[in-house]
Amino acid sequence: MNLVIMMMIGVSIVVFFIILATLLWGIKNKQFDDDYKFITLNDDEESLKEAVELERRKKETLRDKARKEP
């Protein structure tokens, strides 16, 4: 029984170091950086106004549905 527990602990430690090495490799190679996230947003003023108007219409529609239901 002791052998099984020691083997499980050993395997867990090995798996931990593999996961840690993979995480550090990803950080080193900038896998988690998103340099272009905000650069690619091309919203002009008209598009933003349309989005606000759409949200306003959705809220009105939901409000009207709520009023109609008993």
UniProtKB/TrEMBL annotation:
The chain crosses the membrane at residues 6-27. It comes from Campylobacter helveticus. The lineage of its organism: Bacteria, Pseudomonadati, Campylobacterota, Epsilonproteobacteria, Campylobacterales. The gene is ccoS. Pfam families: FixS (PF03597). This is Cbb3-type cytochrome oxidase assembly protein CcoS. Keywords: Membrane, Transmembrane, Transmembrane helix.
